[in-house]
Amino acid sequence: MRMHSLRLRKILRDLWSDKARTALVALSIAAGIFALSLTLRTQAMLSTNMLDAYAAISPADVTLTIDGFDEQFVRAIRTMPGLRAVDGSSHLDVRIRIGSEWRSMILKAVPDFDSMQVNRLVSVAGEWPPPKRTVLLERSYLDVVGARFGEPLLIETPHGRQFQLGLSGAAHDLTAVSGRLGSPIIFGYISLDTAEWLGLSDQMNNLQIVIGDHRFDPAHVQRVVDDVQKRTEDAGHQVLNTHIRAPDEPELYGIIASMLDVLRALGTLSLGLSAFLVINTISGLLVRQVPQIGVLKAIGAPRSVIVLMYLGGVLVLALLALLAALPLADVGARALTLQLAGLFNYDIQNFAVPPYVIGLEIVAGLILPLVAGLYPVLAGTRVTVRQAISGIRNEQFGTSAIDRLLGQWRSAAITQRYALRNMMRRKGRLALTLTALAIGGAIAIAVLSVRASLFTTLDQAEGYWQQDVTIVFEQFQRSDQIIQQALHVPGVALVDSQPATLGIRQRPNGDDAEQPTALFGVQPDSSLLQPTLVAGRWLTPQDSNAVVVNVGFLKREPDVAVGDTVTMKIDERTSRWVVVGVVTAQLYNYRASAPDQAILYANRTPLLEAIRAVGSTNRLLIVTTQHDPGFQNQVGHALDAQFTAAGLQAIVQTRTTTRERVASLISAIVVLLLVMVCLFVVVAGLSLMGAMSLNVLDRTKEIGVLRAIGSSSTIVVWIVLMEGVYTSILSWMLAAMLAVPFSKIISDNIGWSLMNWPLEYRFPPTAVLSWLAIVVVLAIIASYLPAISAARLSVRDVLAHE
Amino acid sequence: MFRWWSRRVASSHFQAAVPAANAPLVELRHVVKTYVTPAGNVAALNNVNFQVERGEFVAVIGKSGSGKSTLINTVAGIDRPTSGEVLVCGTAIHELDESQLALWRGQNMGVIFQFFQLLPTLTLLENVMLPMELANRIPPRERRHRALKLLEQVDMTEQADRLPAAVSGGQQQRVAIARALANDPAVLVADEPTGSLDTRTADAIFDLFERFVAQGKTVLMVTHDRDLASRVSRVVLIADGEIADRHIAQALPMLTRHEMVQLSARLEPLHYAPGAVIVRQGDPAEQFYIILKGEVDILLEQNGGETLIDRRISGEFFGEMGLLHGGQRTATVRAASAFDTILLVLDRASFTTLLEGSEPTRAEIARAVRLRLLNMEDYREPGNANA
């Protein structure tokens, strides 16, 4: 026991006697644990809170759009077996006036706000339930609408009648797309009385169902849905659409989960990099301990005892690191979770960290440093007593080909040659430092590349849709009339009609697809649509029943290939189309609900024939005479005014506002990735600082000699800084090479999770050059302290070193 | 950029200083150097006054811990005096900060270490060129040529492009000397430059120093090797932080400069605690002593007791009577001061050589013996046998 306490005392005193280096090792481990813990905790807190909150609203597993039903019908459905809960409501498409523009709005009319069993709303502020002639807004749209409680909101119904609805409060609806994600549609909630007052039907059109047992069994769910559909049709109603959701999975959860997985992978990688740092620093520390190891062996300590002693030291450092990292990681994770939750319109009720996360952190935080420390400890304690006492150092320069190559470089100043060759002296240490720096750099470049890829993909979406303004009408209108009206608006250069509708694919087995597909009627030679073909060909004017599908459609209907015939059900009429080509997906689509929307493109006339709407359209694509955002908005407002005056309901979207909305989502993703880049920068900086301080320590005597032969403090600082900068430049070259596959992998993953298709990959030279600038600055910062400490050494002290 | 910057730094400080025509090249005035250690303050130099003239080859000798390395480190600006003044080549280097000192050193002083201390990642040629780059006094295009010439002088031209690890210790030290001469400094300081070399190599290195002194350089060297020390123009014996020269000169004023060098190289400092017996009356006489620090009592043992017949102080000698008359000690000598007494000791053979080589000194010592014998007779009690 006494022996143990003596050894422990020695280790603790060793650590205490070199506080700066102890702090550096602890900080290295702490940085890795922080990164892992931050991502683990964020993932755990966010997913737990999101899933709990979502489960708490009793989300619908199945939503049926039905032509119109009453409360009695809902009660009848509730009696069916296999259903846990059933609610009915009415979803009404209206327009809301915000400032000078009309925006789309979905008003959800609820029969009884207090007894909702499915997709429950939660009152956030104001009155509950909303009194007649008032509306509740989804809370994430309060800022978008910019009205205060009690103020009137101007609403226009599909019949063109305008009403003022008082804003009576705010509700939280987890089934609505978050307003903070830039959704173009605004969500509001009214009573059925208000709906009736608005002149809308007092009938409901939306039936939400929670399945009872076996809700995770798709076959069972389908059987239940079939029963409900049959019962509905038996009751004389028509099912217009059936949407089956993955049980208990919130809106966009797949995207969030993918992003969190990427974050966790980066956090784990960051911890791995900090392990390199531990290896380096422990190796360096053990070099200083070699004489003591020799003495310990000489006085009878077996190697196993010495190994355990030093591993004990590593354990102490790991404990210190854990104590430092976990509270910080918790604070960081809470902040990050709050930010992400806010973005997706969730509240964080519970910051508790699951025990498995704490266990994982402790295991990783203690085990990884021990494993990383094992190699240097084993290597360091392998030294024989004779070697230890004689002070033989395993540092050689001049034996390798690289050394000889560097030896040939004679054009630079000798101090520069010295700095460069110094870098190569401890090749093992250099290799680990370069690995940490290069991987960190590669991730940083990759993130910048992903950012560029996202925005390029966004630009491509802009290129895909060439119009400056898109007008979507509530109803189909005579196309020649509305085109003429549009052409009368000053600033309009070109108008094209591109009708769109929704359809459901009827699969070969007779089943309907779960989700609708958007069908666009296009002119094949129109300059306003420039898709990128993946397979097959684009439409020709001669095509009568040909369609081109996007990859989003193929993702949902994987059995479809070029040459196949697909049957589409549009407004209860079926039509058959031959698939002639496949085009890429886009980050945004006009009139599509999400980036991964399935889309079919057909020639305009055959599509209009299929939906019995020849000579009409519900969408106009406008090209303006000037293309700057201000002009687009100006023309957009003029078009809006023109059609409103003509009594037509239309939503006007300019290219700029659409892009801004998507760009805000992209920025959120990039910010998240940049958080991780910051962590990598910290780990990389620590790695370099550790290596440089060890190098300075190793060369203390040489620094004294330099001073003795006339080198000023400034030159000593410069030599150390140059060595750091050379190391960083070498790491940058490696990082640039590694970044190519890294960025491709991350870019593809994000593309697949966002839109079922890889992003338009970009590897911008500016990203590589930016990292060069960052890593050089980092090298100067990381080397500055070791350099200053080197310059502060007095010649006598360093010559007396060892 | 770095070249421009380093040129700017180097040129912004010192040009080669020029001492007054008749001033010593190196001068230490009342220099005290005290190290503060956990065990207490340790005085390494104790009010040292010391001068080196241009062209001198000075060997500093002394025991380990005597202060000899501190002395030359102080001259090189590597050690900073606790008090006192250090003037080298006309510059009061005790007033300079570390960085100014480094630049000054690069331009005015060549430093040579025991373990060579060549930078291992630079070739031998680059090692020699480095101080030129740091001082920036020699134009860049001339540096390589000058470095090669210096390597030629130390017979290392053929190995110029090798790394230090590829040559022997002696060869490394040759290159270190060439490096020290890179900026043509007036003074070379060397701390035991032959300390880690075999005798033959050490001899060759010493030859180099002699050659450079002959060319006009001033060399200040710490050495343990008394044979080599006897080859220099001046030996500075340092003991307990004090320079012994003036005490030796005081004890034996008739010595010529050369004889002084020969003697200094043979003297060994010894410490005696207060009250310790240094020689015992009747014991065989083998050594001659000069008192460097403290006092000794000369005691005549007679009739079972001791009679104090004389007290001698620093700058005086004793032990000559036994060596010159009968080979036995004629009296007991005891350390008398409250602190350690430090003596410089010369063995019988060296003492004999000294007297054979210096007639005035032999005459001076013979006169002193006569006087001391007379004094002894005054104290001798009746019936006591003559020692």
Report on this structure.
The complex is a heterodimer of chains A (802) and B (387). Among the domains of chain A are: 1-58 and 264-390, no CATH class; 62-244, no CATH class; 466-658, no CATH class. In chain A, 54% of the residues lie in helices and 19% in strands. In chain A, the strands form three sheets. A six-stranded mixed β-barrel of chain A has the order 2-3-8-5-7-6. The mean pLDDT of chain A is 84. By secondary structure, chain A is of the alpha+beta class. Chain B has helices at residues 2-11, 68-75, 98-108, 124-135, 140-153, 169-180, 199-214, 226-229, 245-251, 257-266, 320-324, 348-357, 359-379, and strands at 26-37, 40-52, 57-61, 83-88, 91-92, 109-112, 187-191, 218-222, 234-239, 242-243, 268-272, 277-279, 287-293, 295-302, 305-313, 317-318, 332-335, 341-347. In chain B, the strands form four sheets. In chain B, strands 6-7-8-3-9-10 form a six-stranded mixed beta sheet, sandwiched between helices. The longest helix of chain B is centred in the last third of the chain and has 21 residues, at 359-379. The A-B interface holds A 396-398, 407, 412-418, 421-422, 424-425, 701-702, 705-715, 718, 722, 794-796, 799 and B 2-3, 5-6, 9-10, 13, 73, 76-79, 98-103, 105-107, 111, 113, 117, 119-123, 126, 129-131, 133-135, 163, 165-166, 179-180, 182-183.
List the helices and strands and how they pair.
The complex is a heterodimer of chains A (802) and B (387).
Chain A: H1 2-17, H2 19-56, E1 62-69, H3 71-78, E2 83-98, E3 101-110, E4 122-126, E5 134-138, H4 142-145, E6 152-156, E7 162-172, E8 186-191, H5 192-197, E9 204-211, H6 218-234, E10 239-244, H7 253-298, H8 303-343, H9 355-380, H10 385-390, H11 401-408, H12 414-423, H13 427-464, E11 469-478, H14 479-487, E12 492-497, E13 500-506, E14 517-522, E15 533-536, E16 546-550, H15 551-556, E17 565-570, E18 573-583, E19 599-603, H16 604-610, E20 616-624, H17 629-645, E21 650-654, H18 655-698, H19 700-708, H20 713-755, H21 765-792, H22 795-799
Parallel strand pairs in A: 3-8, 5-7, 14-19, 16-18
Antiparallel strand pairs in A: 1-9, 1-10, 2-3, 2-6, 2-9, 4-7, 5-8, 6-7, 11-20, 11-21, 12-20, 13-14, 13-17, 15-18, 16-19, 17-18
Helix pairs in contact in A: 1-8, 2-7, 2-8, 2-9, 2-18, 7-9, 7-13, 7-18, 7-20, 8-9, 12-20, 13-18, 13-20, 13-21, 18-21, 20-21
Chain B: H1 2-11, E1 26-37, E2 40-52, E3 57-61, H2 68-75, E4 83-88, E5 91-92, H3 98-108, E6 109-112, H4 124-135, H5 140-153, H6 169-180, E7 187-191, H7 199-214, E8 218-222, H8 226-229, E9 234-239, E10 242-243, H9 245-251, H10 257-266, E11 268-272, E12 277-279, E13 287-293, E14 295-302, E15 305-313, E16 317-318, H11 320-324, E17 332-335, E18 341-347, H12 348-357, H13 359-379
Parallel strand pairs in B: 3-8, 3-9, 6-7, 7-8
Antiparallel strand pairs in B: 1-2, 1-4, 4-5, 9-10, 11-18, 12-17, 13-16, 13-18, 14-15, 14-17
Helix pairs in contact in B: 4-5, 4-6, 5-6
